[in-house]
Amino acid sequence: xxxxxxxxxxxxxxxxxxxxxxxxxxxxxxxxxxxxxxxxxxxxxxxxxxxxxxxxxxxxxxxxxxxxxxxxxxxxxxxxxxxxxxxxxxxxxxxxxxxxxxxxxxxxxxxxxxxxxxxxxxxxxxxxxxxxxxxxxxxxxxxxxxxxxxxxxxxxxxxxxxxxxxxxxxxxxxxxxxxxxxxxxxxxxxxxxxxxxxxxxxxxxxxxxxxxxxxxxxxxxxxxxxxxxxxxxxxxxxxxxxxxxxxxxxxxxxxxxxxxxxxxxxxxxxxxxxxxxxxxxxxxxxxxxxxxxxxxxxxxxxxxxxxxxxxxxxxxxxxxxxxxxxxxxxxxxxxxxxxxxxxxxxxxxxxxxxxxxxxxxxxxxxxxxxxxxxxxxxxxxxxxxxxxxxxxxxxxxxxxxxxxxxxxxxxxxxxxxxxxxxxxxxxxxxxxxxxxxxxxxxxxxxxxxxxx
Amino acid sequence: xxxxxxxxxxxxxxxxxxxxxxxxxxxxxxxxxxxxxxxxxxxxxxxxxxxxxxxxxxxxxxxxxxxxxxxxxxxxxxxxxxxxxxxxxxxxxxxxxxxxxxxxxxxxxxxxxxxxxx
Lengths: 452, 118
Prior knowledge:
The structure holds two protein chains of two kinds.
Chain A: H1 2-35, H2 38-66, H3 72-99, H4 140-162, H5 168-191, H6 196-200, H7 208-226, H8 242-261, H9 269-297, H10 302-316, H11 325-350, H12 358-376, H13 393-424, H14 431-436, H15 438-443
Chain B: E1 2-9, H1 13-22, E2 29-35, E3 41-45, E4 48-52, E5 55-64, H2 69-80, E6 88-94
Antiparallel strand pairs in B: 1-5, 1-6, 2-5, 3-4
Helix pairs in contact in B: 1-2
């Protein structure tokens, strides 16, 4: 009898708790619905998936088609392993280091560890940071996820510089350290509300400085430090599968809509403008490259068009949310012509072996875009941002400082990381492994089996 | 019996095949061959054209009876010629013996089908 009474009391208490809980939940759901913008959240979620597609398989195919057939799987594996390790690194440390806050001297330079393992972040929290839109009103977790994709694609861009000759183990450790010591701090400078470049007023809509300059400059340093591939002789090795390059370019272009139009963290006019200029820039730059090929080498080439498209997309990245279509055509034309000269002539003169032109295309286009946004930023797109052209002379100076600081920092830290990783793990494969192909020597697989 | 090995332009392969069939040479082997030499082929890579040392050609290997040697060679020479440098070469060598695997026929009769011989 006593037991039964206790049982009933317990049941009542339990029901009570449960009811309270239900009640609480429905209230918090209502609050959430009123404060979070559902439209913006939906768009950023879709953009996240689009940016993911850029790394795998977009970049994997784009770079994979350009290497020789014996190194294809190595490129694909590098793209995949970066997606795996950087995603984990991002939730463990990266997000906190990039967007968290710290105290004292380091505050403008790097975030603290408050959000390590995404500690204290609930699914219903609003995102405290927005790149350009302070009232984007998307959930914090959506912002973390979106930025995670940016963190993953950035080290993947560097692959192009040291393709066909890097040791896989050394590469994995280098990429992880690169994300920790270059990507996270520079993201904090530029996109965190504590960052010194952000406070100075530097503009970077979707990652010209944070993504393309850091990756491009590191690519150059790595290419110089690792030296030429064997039998390179300063002429390019033949790409093994140009249709792969074309498919990869298509996926990159498609994903770039999420990369640029999602970066305003809102589904609004700025996002629409970003998508428009992104598309027009890709089209213009690809066409300009085809024309250059046509006039200088008599025939337009597939790889040329694909490279031009990427050059245009990389240049429009920092500018997408600030400039109008006319400026986009100018920016992408300048970018296409400069990258053409860079990979066709200057690279050969300087004689470094940037295998797939990670610096010549991504780095140069990122620098051009990040500088030109200081000239062409138009008050017609976002009223509070004006460039040199519209009378704000200060903006170009700010962009110059931001680009210069990022170049110097990326170059120095990449050099140190190279020395460190090379000493302890080794970064260059031995000549025998290189001749054999990295697919077999690093992964014990071959891409195209000869036998049935 | 003779072996005729001919290196010809890839673009001339269909012409050569038709010419060989026209003189009733119906059996031969061919494959893509790559070589090096004085001529080069230009490729354009990202806005700059480069000379490659690779030369792509098609290689034919034909085993004929002695009586068919002359007309086979004539057929190849007339059909594969463009008059430019790099038209290719023909090598002729002796073949010691031939066996047909199906019925272990030996010698020249292994090279043609009875009743259709030329």
